[in-house]
Write a structure and sequence with these properties.
Length: 276
């Protein structure tokens, strides 16, 4: 989709951009982004394309087709609602409906509507338990629920879930799998939020070299690993001057990488710069 009008002729909505595009790229109407995702996925279903094609087309509900980065903020929230409305009428056992509920929960969280996100994610977990989905999918849902618990300040509940999820990923996927590395970050973040800094730093010291080797320099999870480690170093009340120096050194490279990959307006870049 290329939106050439500043004001949509039908919905009267303006142009938005909530991705990592820069310059004049990436501006679109939310309704056009939703229509694009809807058409692409409908074509995949109608033509009975394979699972990889379905997954690639489904990503248009959350990823920009130009920069290939996730939408964030109110744009992600608006697309989450549009996705849910599109597939709500399908049977509970229909997987696009399940994924649409997940998109809605993510979108509400991205716009800081965490109480509403919690209701959606708890309903999603109950639904998937009824459907007896595989363990990996349940771990993903538990991960999303733990994020919302943490956002609401319910850190003890989040920690209990995080510990179980990380352990589950190690057993299911091994320490080098991207999902395991992502869960190590989440577990360490929650440990830091509960001021258990030594445990967080110990976990991340083991994770950082693995993330660099497996994911590469530009990967978002790898950038987050270094940010979370630096944050644990400098927020620890017992931090020494050497700890603070290490925190700065740890952040300088991922800050430049985040700016190059995601742009200066992206929440990840802004967050790292704020910490630095």
């Amino acid at each position: 989709y290329i939106c050439t009008q500043a004001l949509h002729w039908k919905t009267k909505e303006g142009l938005v951009r909530g991705c990592a595009c820069r310059g004049t790229a990436g501006f679109a109407h939310v309704s056009c982004l939703a229509e694009q995702a809807k058409i692409l996925f409908a074509e995949a279903e109608a033509n009975n394309l394979d699972k990889n094609a379905w997954n690639e087309r489904w990503k248009r509900w959350q990823k920009c087709s130009l920069c290939e980065q996730d939408y964030h903020g109110v744009v992600r929230c608006a697309l989450g609602w549009a996705c849910w409305k599109t597939y709500l009428g399908r049977p509970e056992t229909d997987w696009p409906r399940c994924l649409a509920m997940q998109q809605l929960g993510h979108g509400l969280g991205a716009a800081d509507h965490h109480e509403d996100a919690l209701s959606v994610k708890e309903a999603e977990m109950a639904m998937l338990r009824r459907l007896s989905v595989p363990e990996g999918e349940m771990l993903n849902v538990q991960c999303n629920l733990a994020i919302t618990y943490a956002s609401l300040g319910r850190h003890e509940q989040a920690l209990s879930l995080r510990r179980d999820i990380y352990s589950g990923r190690l057993k299911l996927n091994g320490e080098e799998h991207p999902e395991t590395l992502r869960e190590a970050n989440n577990y360490a973040t929650t440990l830091s939020e509960l001021q258990r800094y030594q445990e967080a730093k110990s976990l991340l010291r083991k994770t950082m070299p693995v993330a660099r080797r497996v994911l590469g320099e530009d990967n978002e999870t790898r950038i987050l690993t270094r940010w979370i480690y630096a944050d644990a170093l400098y927020t620890d009340p017992g931090a020494t001057l050497d700890d603070l120096r290490e925190a700065v050194t740890t952040l300088e490279e991922p800050e430049q990488t985040a700016r190059r990959v995601f742009g200066g307006a992206h929440p990840l870049t802004a967050g790292i710069e704020g910490t630095l």
